[in-house]
């Protein structure tokens, strides 16, 4: 399905002087897409040329539209010698291919040269016309929306979450091709930039195809990475979560916030017993002493009752014409009218269905880190897997099977770990690599979890409100903490207690996760960033030997990191970690491990005990004294931290709670294993056997050092908080000031003979000093919180340690912090009930005109209810809607009929696409050649697009002219900007830049070089966002920052890869006229934004 | 253990005004760190010297990268590299173009050439302004001079628009440009007591009344060069001292008006002829570039010094000059009233400014 790409070069400004004689430049522009190139006229003797060119038109296949960037080169005309390049602009036109995103790209772009950096700016206009009607268009892979955001993007609702997506493409790295010896560094860098741009375009297109195959329309939590494998090639890989997203309109907005588990009142009265027995159905299931084990994949769990209620009639699937990958069971279910009677058998059936639904997928993984309320049922713990591989040259880029197989292996492992934890899914899933020469560590981690099945099936969500009473009865504030595994058959030794919140189900003593803290979770006090840092020296080695050495070291590193995390958590008197990210980086002579997470005190979990120091030798008085002082310091620290983080759990009368004497407990929420190339899988139990986890034994100097390092972590100065999750638990009243920053520090270890201990100290100091630096620099923002602190460590070469950090500082209103939390829960609860009520009512009213009169009457008066009255009212309505299931069926059926026809068309189209995909083969970049023939065949369609005129008229070319101040573009690694609403997602930003210099000293050394490069990258990201019409980038991340330097040769090179979502935001106070009718939805958005 | 690389880049460029001032003042990184420590920045937040050093380095780098833009301030507003809020931009520019009065006093009226630049280390040593800061200030003068040299229209307005400066600063720069262009002598010992602001005010008077721009506002260099025609016409004033009758008549008119109104009457009467000769001679000689340069020194020698030795008060000066100017109108044979007013208006203002009690 072809399209016409049109580009217009308007003007340039601030161009560099290219002609020394006249101090001016004779600039012209080449516009290239695929193999077609156009040129503008030369604009003589000006540093601010006005080309005002015609529209350059490229007739291209949409496949190329997705893969290729528009390449704009600014040159200086030279009559006698070759024209000199000033610089380039690559424009990713993907956002134009999606109807909901941007319609035009127009603005000033920095002209970038890999050797000189930014050299002036150019004003460009780009549009795309697609020759097809809207429906046909939507079926192409171009219609799929991509989001870096790892939650359901604001303004959308997830009609369905389909599942895990992965793809990778490989190619030879141009830097390592023979031709690189004869071409200039500039040509080589540009070849590389272009190749990576092509590869990521191709990757995105392929992922898009997979999404369509699954029946989705969007990718959320899209994470793309580059592996620079050196000689062996270049791998671009991506993972993501396929979803069917629906844009919230004023009508659907209310329903989007209706979530099943937010009706505590109805929960409480309907299910006093645990395990989701529904008295409503009058079922007589035997009660079980064990905790619920929903979707338990382990056979041992079969004895416990299925906690999931049948989803009633709605589970009927009419979209049988869906593609083969559909996860929906195709069995027709009994009609809703008989739901009550058939409940028992239905339940079993349904459970099997949903179970198989998840098991059908190869990997039930989700890259999301925060979820719509009710999605996450239970959380098991962190699962991770690592594998050490030896890189070999990718002989045939079209067949990247080895890389695929490697990841497949790791994912299988993750899956089996999750199973062992009694979980059927993995959330907050991520993958990364660390490469040093020919050795590569592949890592994957996530959080084992049990998810609500409703999101896995189509249609169900729309009538989900009737569902909610039969769901897991746990209150949302603690439900996710309840163990998913069988108490009698625990996968690892753990200390279980009854939930301190609901008192009904068992919870572990500590909980580690890779996800964000669920918004509805009950938290005591505030959280803080907790890091474990570790260095391990290793001997230099080659090949297999090296790989073996590394894989032997890995388990010890994981163990120590885990121990550090656990101790630091106790020291802060907290009991759970969120956003846990463990990175292990490999260098020639050392391994670096950095684990970051946000510690919190979950109200549902037991209070952590203290830490007790024990000496090995008794009787030695001085030693005893020493131990006592350390013990005192530790106790003091704990007490101080409790105060600092305002951890004052409600006093419980039960014995053992908050007891200073540690009880024997075991720690292990972390399941890991690693495998070597030899496929040998070893599992490591981190539970420290039967040893008491709280007692730290001082038996040698190392242990003393360890304890000291434990105590050296400085807490943030007054007015500062820090976390690596989206927001800080305990802070709700954000103001609008944000400051995103990137900081990089590289340390050279001058001393060759360092011990592990001193190395650890150096590394710890490096991280601590970085944090101190941030606090100092941002001191004017106090009170503020550093959110989403993302640390990245690397060993770029021997004796160098590189740490790069990206984070955002957000200010908040201090005065209110103290009072808000409690109040917030009330108001939030209130508004949610409100929402629900609204939805239920709408449902009743919508479902059928024959609906009972009362419901419509209620809907008329709803706005008059006081909050107190709302609670009971909602119950009432819920009963109503269950009472009239037929109506809901009608509506769902109507919707699915529509979908069916869509799916029909979809599947035929998909076949076509798949065919194409096969002919292209992954990794091939030769696809552009085929473009021509296709483009020709459709040129006849040209006339039939009346759309063009209308579209072009909307382009305000006036705004492109200079003089106007630059739009301020905010950037944040979070999915939102506080105090604002994202009103439109404009598309994904995914950019890759290379910068090189041969005059390092002149540019201010490596620091000067990198400083200006990072500033340039920010500038280019902002320019692209502004050109799309946006004013912010959310979910921004810098995935790679690879720096190579050679000060002796006065050279340096750096590669940076950044990504994010371009959005338009408005301040919450500026109400949009169109959305003003949905006040309730907005207020909830506001509440979301504040959490 | 050496920090090989250390950078911090904010999406909105972080700039500390304090550090910016230290940078502008030409402090080295180490001196700046010391100055910040002395200022007590460490006490207000828990940090150590390393943190301060790292922060100072970062900021210095940022300023260095910004400097290119600050040199053509219009670019700062529409460049893309640094995201700086508009009010921050104003602050950066204003401070970058700010100068030390002691420094500018040294170069005022000098040719803004390489020769002068070579003397900057002497000036630096003399004034205590760091050489780096001297260079920045000197280059600013030179840059502004070069840009406005080729522009039509009012000088102050041109400076304000091209360099986005405040009105006050634009006026100061206009004075500097004006002095540099006409090479007024300001360095003589006798002029040392005058501050830059004194000269700047005088320059304002000269620009507003004696330049081409005072009559025609669309000429090149209109505010920089003195009105040649006017200078020629000034020769006609010679009659006031050359014609003995006229001089006597003038004196009696002035004395009649002054009698009884000041304690310094006797000195005024005694000195009238001398003073009048002095002022008129200055006027008639202004066609010579050399004498233009000596304009201020002449004013001091021929008028201010005699008055001062007779202990005139500022009020005396004012009284005397007012009557001196006005009486000339009553002189019958004197036909050059317009030129006289244009001349004396400026002379009067300049003397008021330059006469320090």
Automatic annotation (TrEMBL), chain B:
GO terms for biological process: platelet aggregation. One of its GO terms (molecular function) is fibroblast growth factor binding. Pfam families: FIBP (PF05427). GO terms for cellular component: nucleus. Transmembrane segments: none annotated. InterPro entries: FIBP (IPR008614). This is Fibroblast growth factor (acidic) intracellular binding protein a. It comes from Fundulus heteroclitus (Killifish).
């Amino acid at each position: 399905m072809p399209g016409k790409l049109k580009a217009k070069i308007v003007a340039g400004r601030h161009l560099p002087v290219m002609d020394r004689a006249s101090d001016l430049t004779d600039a012209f522009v080449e516009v290239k897409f695929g193999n077609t190139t156009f040129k503008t006229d030369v604009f003589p003797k000006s540093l601010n040329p006005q080309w005002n060119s015609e529209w350059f038109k490229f007739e291209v296949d949409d496949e190329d539209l997705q893969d290729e960037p528009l390449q704009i080169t600014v040159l200086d005309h030279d009559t006698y010698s070759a024209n000199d390049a000033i610089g380039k602009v690559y424009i990713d036109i993907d956002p134009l291919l999606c109807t909901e995103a941007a319609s035009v790209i127009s603005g000033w772009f920095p002209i970038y040269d890999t050797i000189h950096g930014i050299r002036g700016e150019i004003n460009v206009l780009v549009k795309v016309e697609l020759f097809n009607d809207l429906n046909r268009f939507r079926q192409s892979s171009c219609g799929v929306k991509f989001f870096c955001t790892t939650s359901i993007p604001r303004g959308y609702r997830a009609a369905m979450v389909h599942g895990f997506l992965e793809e990778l493409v490989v190619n030879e790295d141009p830097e390592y091709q023979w031709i690189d010896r004869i071409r200039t560094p500039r040509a080589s860098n540009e070849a590389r930039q272009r190749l990576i741009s092509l590869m990521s375009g191709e990757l995105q297109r392929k992922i898009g195809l997979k999404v369509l195959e699954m029946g989705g329309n969007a990718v959320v939590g899209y994470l793309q990475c580059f592996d620079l494998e050196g000689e062996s090639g270049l791998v671009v890989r991506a993972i993501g979560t396929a979803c069917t997203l629906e844009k919230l309109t004023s009508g659907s907005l209310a329903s989007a916030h209706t979530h099943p588990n937010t009706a505590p009142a109805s929960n409480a009265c309907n299910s006093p017993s645990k395990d989701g027995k529904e008295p409503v159905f009058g079922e007589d299931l035997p009660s079980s002493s064990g905790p619920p084990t929903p979707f338990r994949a382990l056979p041992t769990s079969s004895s416990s009752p299925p906690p999931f209620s049948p989803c009633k009639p709605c589970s009927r699937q009419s979209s049988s014409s869906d593609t083969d990958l559909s996860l929906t069971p195709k069995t027709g279910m009994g009609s809703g009218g008989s739901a009550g009677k058939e409940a028992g058998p239905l339940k079993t059936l349904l459970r099997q269905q949903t179970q198989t639904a998840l098991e059908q997928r190869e990997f039930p993984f989700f890259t999301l880190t925060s979820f719509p309320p009710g999605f996450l049922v239970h959380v098991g713990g962190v699962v991770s897997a690592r594998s050490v591989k030896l890189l070999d040259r990718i002989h045939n880029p079209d067949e990247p099977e080895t890389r695929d197989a490697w990841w497949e292996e790791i994912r299988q492992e993750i899956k089996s770990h999750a199973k062992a934890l009694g979980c059927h899914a993995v959330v907050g899933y991520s993958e990364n690599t660390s490469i040093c020469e020919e050795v590569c560590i592949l890592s994957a981690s996530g959080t084992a979890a049990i998810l609500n099945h409703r999101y896995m099936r189509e249609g169900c969500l729309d009538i989900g409100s009737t569902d909610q009473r039969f769901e897991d009865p746990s209150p949302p504030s603690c439900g996710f903490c309840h163990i998913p595994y069988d108490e009698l058959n625990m996968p690892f030794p753990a200390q279980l207690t009854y939930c301190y919140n609901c008192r009904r189900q068992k919870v572990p003593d500590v909980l580690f996760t890779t996800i964000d803290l669920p918004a509805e979770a009950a938290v005591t006090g505030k959280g803080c960033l907790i890091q474990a840092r570790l260095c391990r020296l290793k001997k230099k080695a080659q090949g297999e030997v090296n790989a073996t050495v590394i894989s032997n070291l890995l388990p010890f590193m994981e163990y120590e990191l885990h121990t550090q995390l656990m101790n630091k958590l106790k020291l802060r008197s907290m009991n759970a970690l969120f956003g846990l990210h463990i990175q292990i980086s490999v260098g020639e002579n050392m391994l670096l491990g950095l684990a970051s997470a946000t510690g919190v005190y979950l109200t549902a979990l037991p209070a952590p005990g203290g830490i007790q120091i024990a000496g090995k030798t008794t009787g030695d008085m001085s030693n005893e004294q020493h131990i006592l002082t350390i013990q005192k310091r530790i106790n003091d620290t704990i007490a101080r931290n409790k105060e600092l983080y305002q951890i004052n759990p409600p006093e419980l009368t039960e014995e053992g709670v908050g007891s200073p004497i540690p009880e024997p407990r075991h720690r292990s929420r972390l399941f890991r294993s690693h495998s070597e190339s030899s496929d040998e899988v070893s599992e490591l139990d981190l539970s420290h056997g039967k040893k008491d986890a709280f007692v730290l034994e001082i038996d040698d100097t190392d242990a003393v050092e360890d304890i000291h390092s434990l105590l050296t972590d400085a807490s943030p100065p007054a007015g500062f908080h820090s976390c690596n999750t989206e927001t800080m638990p305990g802070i709700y009243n954000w103001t609008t000031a944000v400051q995103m920053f990137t900081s990089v520090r590289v340390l050279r270890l001058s001393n060759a003979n360092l011990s592990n201990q001193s190395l650890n100290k150096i590394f710890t100091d490096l991280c601590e000093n970085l944090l101190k630096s941030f606090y100092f620099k941002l001191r004017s923002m106090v009170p503020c919180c550093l959110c989403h602190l993302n640390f990245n460590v690397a060993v770029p070469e021997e004796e160098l340690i590189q740490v790069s950090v990206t984070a955002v500082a957000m200010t908040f209103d201090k005065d209110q912090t103290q009072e808000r939390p409690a109040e917030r829960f009330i108001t939030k609860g209130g508004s949610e009930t409100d929402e629900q009520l609204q939805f239920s009512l709408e449902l009743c009213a919508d479902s059928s005109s024959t609906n009972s009169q009362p419901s419509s009457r209620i809907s008329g008066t709803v706005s008059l209810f006081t909050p107190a009255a709302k609670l009971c009212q909602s119950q009432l309505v819920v009963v109503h809607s269950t009472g009239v299931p037929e109506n809901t069926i009608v509506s769902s059926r109507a919707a699915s009929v529509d979908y069916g026809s869509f799916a029909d068309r979809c599947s035929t189209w998909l076949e076509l696409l798949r065919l194409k995909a096969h002919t292209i083969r992954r990794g091939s970049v030769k696809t552009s050649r085929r473009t021509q023939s296709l483009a020709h065949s459709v040129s006849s369609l040209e006339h039939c697009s009346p759309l063009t005129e209308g579209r072009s008229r909307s382009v305000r070319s006036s705004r492109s002219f200079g003089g106007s101040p630059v739009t301020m573009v905010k950037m944040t690694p979070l999915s939102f900007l506080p105090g604002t609403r994202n009103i439109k997602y404009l598309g994904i930003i995914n950019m890759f830049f290379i910068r090189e210099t041969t005059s390092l000293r002149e540019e201010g050394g490596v620091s000067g070089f990198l400083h200006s490069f990072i500033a340039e990258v920010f500038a280019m990201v902002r320019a692209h966002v502004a050109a799309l019409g946006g004013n912010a980038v959310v979910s921004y991340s810098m995935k790679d920052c690879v720096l190579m330097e050679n000060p002796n040769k006065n050279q340096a090179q750096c590669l940076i890869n950044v990504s994010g979502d371009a959005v338009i935001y408005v301040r919450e106070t500026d109400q949009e006229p169109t959305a003003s009718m949905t006040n309730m939805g907005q207020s909830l958005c506001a509440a979301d934004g504040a959490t | 253990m050496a920090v090989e690389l250390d950078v911090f880049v904010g999406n909105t460029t972080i700039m500390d005004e304090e550090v910016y001032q230290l940078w502008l003042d030409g402090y080295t990184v180490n001196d700046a760190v010391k100055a910040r420590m002395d200022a007590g920045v460490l006490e207000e937040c828990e940090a150590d010297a390393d943190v301060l050093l790292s922060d100072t380095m970062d900021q210095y780098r940022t300023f260095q990268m910004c400097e290119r833009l600050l040199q053509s301030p219009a670019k700062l507003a529409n460049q893309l590299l640094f995201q700086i809020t508009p009010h921050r931009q104003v602050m950066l520019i204003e401070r970058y173009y700010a100068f030390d009065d002691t420094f500018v006093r040294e170069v005022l009226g000098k040719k803004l050439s390489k020769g002068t630049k070579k003397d900057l280390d002497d000036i630096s040593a003399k004034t205590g302004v760091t050489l780096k800061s001297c260079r920045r200030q000197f280059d600013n003068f030179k840059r502004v001079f070069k840009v406005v040299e080729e522009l039509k229209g009012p000088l102050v307005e041109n400076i304000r628009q091209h360099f986005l400066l405040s009105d006050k600063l634009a006026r100061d720069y206009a004075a500097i440009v004006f002095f540099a262009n006409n090479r007024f002598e300001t360095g003589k010992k006798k002029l040392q007591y005058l501050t830059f602001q004194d000269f700047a005010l005088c320059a304002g008077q000269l620009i507003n009344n004696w330049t081409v721009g005072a009559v025609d506002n669309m000429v090149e260099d209109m505010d920089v060069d003195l009105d040649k025609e006017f200078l020629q016409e000034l020769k006609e004033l010679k009659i006031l001292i050359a014609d003995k009758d006229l001089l006597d008549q003038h004196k009696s008119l002035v004395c009649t008006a002054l009698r009884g109104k000041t304690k310094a009457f006797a000195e005024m009467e005694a000195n009238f002829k001398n003073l009048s000769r002095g002022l008129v001679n200055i006027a008639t000689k202004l066609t010579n570039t050399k004498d233009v340069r000596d304009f201020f020194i002449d004013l001091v020698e021929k008028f201010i010094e005699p008055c001062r030795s007779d202990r005139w008060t500022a009020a005396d000066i004012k009284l005397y000059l007012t009557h001196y100017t006005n009486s000339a109108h009553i002189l019958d044979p004197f036909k050059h009233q317009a030129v006289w007013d244009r001349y004396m208006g400026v002379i009067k203002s300049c003397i008021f400014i330059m006469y320090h009690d």
